[in-house]
Amino acid sequence: MEGFSELDISTANCTVEKKGHVMLVTLNRPEAKNALSPQMLLGMYNAWRRLDEDPELRVAVLTGKGDTFCAGMDLKFGPEGGPDADAFLEKMGEVPDIHWQSLLRHNQPMKPIILGVEGYALAGGTEILQGTDIRVAAEDAVFGVTECKRGLFPLGGSTIRLRRQIPYALAAEILLLGRHVSAEEALQWGLINRVVPKGEALAEAVKIAEEIANENAPLSVQAITRSLRENQFDQPEMEALANELKVGEPIFATKDSKEGMKAFKEKRTPNFVGE
Prior knowledge:
Helix content is 41%, strand content 15%. By secondary structure, the protein is an alpha/beta fold.
């Protein structure tokens, strides 16, 4: 995308770029409908760890090249085999759950991820979605967790996360029927945030990311993201509220907190520096 520069952590099937405070992660295997490959998983793992580690990066956008976001696991060889798997398998020796971290099932970054979907996001494509924060889809996008149609199980977390993100009965319908869900249905069900004309999902996702990165205090955004990640539905409310205080109270002692209140008083745009 215009204005973005490629980073050295890209792989053959996953391009990682940066523009200002925004990282752009593109699944880059359009000839195979962006089906998951070892090189794609390695690239996503690299991206999420860099997002966490680089203080200059404040938010990420995830998308797919071509007319399909992700068709899920490549059933011809699975995510751990096939050509160009050596680097991925070597890294798996160091990080046994690298594939789950890649798919945002484990160890999610403590910074927001904005999703831009064109076309199909099936099986692993919809499972990755559940690890993102704000989701934009083109009007022709199609979602679904279709593992039951292949005698498989959606190990990316859908039987747990999906029922927490949308009503139980709708999650059960998606999982047990394995049927396709249109962008309009996904919007109505609360699975995605916005529907845009075909071809505009990435631009809208980047627009959201740049607003978060350039207009909001980065430490505030990171703390809110951390609280969203760590305080889930299985916690008693009082325990979750106590954890929220631990995460949120330190923000009021930051330089950016003082700058934000001062700028409001002076009726000007705040200059946040991440301190």
